C-alpha cells in the first residue's frame, strides 16, 4: 500500500509539473472544432462507402461486418451527431433511409443492453432533434412521428427480457421470439440498470407507462439487492437475485448503473434515484476510493481485490460535475489524464500497483469516457487545461488510429498496433464529445437563456432550453420535451419568475376550490343518474305506457370545469362498472360463466313457454340447473398411465443425446404479455418506494438549465420561503 501511495503521489506531481497550460484563443478553439468535424466526416464517409449496410466498419480491410444485430448500427448511432454538427441535409437523407425499415422483426439474438442504448437511444434522440433540421414533422410531434414509432417497435421487442421473477432483465433477446431457449439468467449490473433514460423518455412521449415502470422496477431491484455496506456486485442472477460475481467497483459491468441513477433523476425528476446514488457514493468513497483512484473490492466487506484503473471508469469525473462536485472531479481527471500521457491512450486496464498497462487488457477501442468527462468539466469550470487534455486526445487519435478507410482500434497502447475494428460509438460518442468541447456555442450548451415555443396536442410547449441529458451512448434527450406530451402537471408551475408571487393568491385558490366542487358535483350527478337509470328500469317493467320525464336540473353547466378521475380499482367490466382486482376472472372462467348463463336461460325460457301453453307442471328435469362441465368436459379415461419405474426404463433405452434434450429446459417459455407483466409488478410491489421519493431539493444540481431549476424550485418552495 505504501508503494501504491508513493506511485500515485509521484504520478500526480509529475503530471502537474509537466503540464504548461496553453492559452487558447477563440480562433484556436474553432480550428480544433473543424478538425474534429473532418475526423468525423472521414470516418462517416468511409462507413458509407465500405461498410453500409453492415453494423460496423473494418478500417484496415475497408469492408463491413455485422456485430450487434445486423441493423446498420453505425448509421443509426451517428444520426444525432450529424444534427449536432449542423449537417441537416445529411441527417434528413439518412432518416429517410432508416425509415425504409418499418420494423425490427428479425430472427436474430441481440444484446438487450446494447440495442437499448444504441438503437432505442439513437432513434429517440434523432426524433427529438428532427425539428431543428427542417424535416417535415407529423401532426402531434413530438408525441408522434415515424422515428418514435420505430423506437417503440424496438422497445416492445426488448420488453420480454424483463419478464423475470425479480424484474431484472435477461441479457439477450431474440427480436422475433423473445428470450432464447436456454438463455443464461446471469446479467451484469449495468445490463440491469441502464434503461430508465430511454424507457422513461419513451413512456413520457407515447403515454404508455409500461417502459418507464419496468425500467424503474429494475433499478429498485438492484437497490434492494445491495450489500449491507451499500455496494453492488458485478453480475447477478435475474431469476434468483443471487450475486454471481461479487467484485464491487465503478467500472466495466457496473458503470452505467450509477450514471443512470444521476441522469435518470434529473431527466425524469425522480429525487429517489439521486438519493440512491448519493447513498452509493458514500460507500464508494469509503471502500473503493484510494487517493483519487478507484479500486475493486468485495461487495460484502469492502476488501480490495483488484487495484486497477479501467478506461471505462473515466466517466466518473463527468458524472460528479453534474451534481456540483467539480473540484473533486478535477483531481480525479488529472490522474486519468496522466495515464493517457504515459501511453498516448488509456488501456482497458491499468495496474495501479505496477504503474503499467495490463498485459491481457492493453487495447484502446477509441473509447469516449475520458473526453466525455473533459467536456462536462470544461463546460462547468472553463479551465483551459481541459482544452489541452482534449487536444492531446485529438492528436493521439489522428496520429496513431487514422487509416485510409477510417479510424482503427489500438490493439496495444504500448506500441500502437492497430486492430481491424471501428466501433459505432466512435461516431456516436468520441467525435461528438470532442466536437462539443471545442464548440462552446452549440445549442446543446444552452444555459437556459433562450427557447423555442412549439404547438402540441396539449397546447404550447417550450423546448430547446438546454439541460440536455446524454444517455450512455451520448444520445441527447431534451428534458422539456418529455412534458409536451401530457397535460400540465397539477400544483405549482413557475417557469416565469414574475408569476412567483401570484401562484397562491386568493383568485387561484377560488379557482382550485371551484374545480374540486365541480368534481364533487360530477360524482353526485353520476350517482344520481345511476339511481335514476335503475328506477327507470324498474318502472319500465311495471308500466310501459307512462314515459319518464327528463330532468336537466342535475346536469352540469356547459362551461363548468370538470376534473377527469381514474377508476378506483383500475379494473372495469365491459359495461364500465368497476370490479375489484381480487374478483378478476380469467378467460376460462368468463367463458364458462357465459355458457352456463346462456344454456340455463334457454332452458328457463323453454320451461316458461311450456307453462304458458299448457297447465302441466314442469318436470324436475326441465328446471334442473346444468353446469357447463357436464356438457363440454369428457368423461375420464380409464387408461392406466405407465409407472415411474417403467418410464425410467423406457428413457434409458433412448440415445443419450435425446435423453439430454428431454431432460433439458427445452420447452419454450410462455409468450410474454407486457400488460400482464406490468399489472403483476404493480400488484406484487416487491420493492418498497424509497423514502426520499418527494425530496425534490436533491434535484437542484448544476445539470439543469436556469429555467428548469426555477421551475423545479416551484415544486417545493412556497411563497413565504421565496420572500425570505
From TrEMBL:
Binding site for Ca(2+): 472
The keyword Metal-binding is annotated on this UniProt entry: yes
Primary location class: endoplasmic reticulum
Ranges where the record places region Disordered: 544-588
Pfam families reported in the protein's UniProt record: Glyco_hydro_47
Database matches in InterPro entries: 6hp_glycosidase-like_sf, EDEM1/2/3, Glyco_hydro_47, Seven-hairpin_glycosidases
Keyword ATP-binding: no
Localization: Endoplasmic reticulum
Listed EC numbers: 3.2.1.-
Chain intervals with Basic and acidic residues compositional bias: 544-553
Active site: 114 (proton donor), 255, 348 (proton donor), 369
An example Gene Ontology molecular-function term: mannosyl-oligosaccharide 1,2-alpha-mannosidase activity
Functional summary from the UniProt entry: Involved in the endoplasmic reticulum-associated degradation (ERAD) pathway that targets misfolded glycoproteins for degradation in an N-glycan-dependent manner. May initiate ERAD by promoting the first mannose trimming step of ERAD substrates, from Man9GlcNAc2 to Man8GlcNAc2. Seems to recognize and bind to exposed hydrophobic regions in target proteins.
Family: Belongs to the glycosyl hydrolase 47 family.
UniProt protein name: alpha-1,2-Mannosidase
Organism of provenance: Bombyx mori
